[in-house]
Amino acid sequence: MRKNPVLENEMKRYTRNMKCAWIILGVNLVLALFALIAQMGLSGRENYMTILQYRFPIQCYVLMGYGLFLAICILIPGLAGGSIAGERERKTLDLLLTTHLSPWKIILGKLESSLCLIFLISFSTLPVIGLVLIYGGITLVNLFQLILSLVITGIFIGSIGIFYSAIMRKTTVAVILSYVTVVLLVLGTVGILFGIGYIQQIRGMYREDFTGIRLGGLVYLLYFNPAVTLYGLIGQQTTNAYGLVRLCGHFGDYSHSFGVEHMVELSILVQLGCSALLLIAAGRHIHPMRK
Amino acid sequence: MLKIESLTRRYPHVTALDGLNMEIGHGQLYGFVGPNGAGKTTTIRIISGLLRPTSGKVWIDGIRAEKETRVLKSKIGYVPDFFGVYDNLTVMEYLEFYSAAYGIDEKEGRLRASEVLERVQLFHIKDRMVDELSRGMQQRLCLARALIHRPQLLVMDEPASGLDPGARRIFKEVLRSLCEEGYTVLISSHILSDLADMCSNIGVIHQGKMVLEGPIDEIMTSIDSSNPILIEVYQNLETAVHLLNRHPLVSRIAIDKNMISILFTGSREEEAQLLRQLVEQKVLVTSFRREHNNLESVFFHLTDPVQGGTTV
């Protein structure tokens, strides 16, 4: 299969940039710090008869998972938000569009280059994350699932960034909008549900027939929240298997709801679907024959 | 090579192109001139496949451009009035990237990159970073990029703007050599003296319409023939004026000291006969010449509403 020239070009430019090296170093240092803290918790009061505290490596894995997620939320909007708008500002977008590259291929090249950065960071952190495998409780399959989930998050957040980058003329505006959208998805969706739930509860205090908060279908807003997907996945992998059902329990009774029980899988599908739509919209927007 | 028929492009509040017609033959170096906002860039962007026309047709080498965009892209090399720089890329890598973007394989791309760098006299800086080059070098690199897929038609939008005279001279040399090799070049520019030196044909666009088009020599001659003849008389001015007043081909006479300016509608031969008649009448003539135009005066004549002419 032919390599996408846009991907190759972007990777060449990223990896020559000192920023890339600093990012990898920074992420690894933070994760190593988590690992160190966990290790100290594990063997802080040791003697050879000490019973190892297995919850520490598990907590370390959970922390590292969220740490990588946070790194993606911080890095990808900045990269993807500047991808097409940056080409436009450099005045290279027109030059690319006069070549045999289709707008879709340009868009995909940009997304792939953002994903490559996630892969690069994820694989560079494997030795640190792999430490938890020594103590058991987390398997290689779990690790693979975690990375896959982070890649999907990267696709979703990257698509949001690329969409804004395609429709906005200025990189700064596209990047700001990307960050705002990510914050709205991660914190806003949960915030909205808790806010509405709180209002229902306040109103219910004055009603005798109030039986609890019921948000109904609104809870499916969480499908758009990649943090909830990760929370559900890590919950399934560790001890907190019913974490999502418990979280949704704040908004009503979803104990037998298929949509909540399979929220991880369904939210991944929804996020991938949204990504596809955003990328199609971005491609259509930069297509010269539609201007 | 390029044929444009009734090309129109409308924006919500302005009509950029209003039924533009244009034809460029194989191997021509065609100068495309017009004031700012006349529609030059819009035309070039439509030809390059970067903009959709509201109506009208564009053929490139007999192929309808709007229908066969991939073929169109193979046949056209586009040089804009700016230079898009990627940081952290060398000159060679920059060209290899664009050759890959045209679907040329890696080995062939490297060969072609060397070839076009030689052509634009930049091979010696192939390992320099693109963003460190001077503007003149960047513009030549941009030309090299446009040649990497061996197009038949080069479309250049104000390529020499912002270049110093030395860089402009090298750029002109490269363009001339390209035309000698059979490339067809469409070049828009504000530097009319440069175009007059280089181009075989020109087209003047004004308010989205082509107001004048043809071989540059013919255009200059046809416009020259409507210019006044200036006669400088050393002696016998009155006799000269008397003769000119009676001449059927002289329509207007203006006198300033020893200089007589006349509007003469005859041919070159009739001009010569008029001079002989003056000499036979014992008028001592020190100079007899038709006032010449340059491309700049033609341009202003056609596009300046105060001077009058948008209708040719």
UniProtKB/TrEMBL annotation, chain A:
GO terms for molecular function: ABC-type transporter activity. GO terms for cellular component: plasma membrane. This is ABC transporter permease subunit. It holds the Pfam family ABC2_membrane_2. It comes from the Bacteria. Keywords: Membrane, Transmembrane, Transmembrane helix. The keyword Acyltransferase does not apply.
UniProtKB/TrEMBL annotation, chain B:
Keywords: ATP-binding, Nucleotide-binding, Transport. Residues 2-232 form the ABC transporter domain. InterPro entries: AAA+_ATPase (IPR003593), ABC_transporter-like_ATP-bd (IPR003439), P-loop_NTPase (IPR027417). The keyword Mitochondrion does not apply. CDD domains: ABC_DR_subfamily_A. One of its GO terms (molecular function) is ATP binding. Belongs to the ABC transporter superfamily. PANTHER family: ABC TRANSPORTER, ABC TRANSPORTER, ATP-BINDING PROTEIN. This is ABC transporter ATP-binding protein. It comes from Oliverpabstia intestinalis.
